[in-house]
Amino acid sequence: TTSFVFTVTAADGSTTSSYTVSVVRGLNPVVSTWKLRVNGVEVTCAAWNINGFNYFKLRDIALALKGTPKHFNVTYNNATRVISMISNQDYVTVGGEMVKPTTYKKCVLSNQMMMVDNRNINLTAYNVDGNNYFMLREIGELFNFGITYDSITRYMDINTSTVYIPITDPQ
To answer: pTM score, two decimals?
Structure first.
């Protein structure tokens, strides 16, 4: 990401405003080669590696956590264009979950508005072919579940009986 700051001065010189524009270059997602387990059980879900980081489809993570102590539902309001995540609510499927991607047509930084339990949040997300993908660690932090990574076996493990601890591994 490259950011540019522009300063605009009124014609009469009375006011000045600064604007920052961020440009994301080189979005070239590849299907993630990492595997995911939830409480020791492997799950198949959609994941992309974008600029060296793994991003998961939010609905897949919600479905994978259904029936666990860290379950949450995901809804989308077409009128307000807001994704809402609700803690302690079972995920309701909408179709298209757990489909592993193979190719993509379009990938852009998402500007999607999001809420968790009726409070606004900001997460880094990418929209790939109409679906929003999020970093697992950001979802783990939101819903307070444990995440570990094994770079040798290439497994990411979600443990819903432990709490979120910030991770330094860049995956």
So the answer is: 0.80
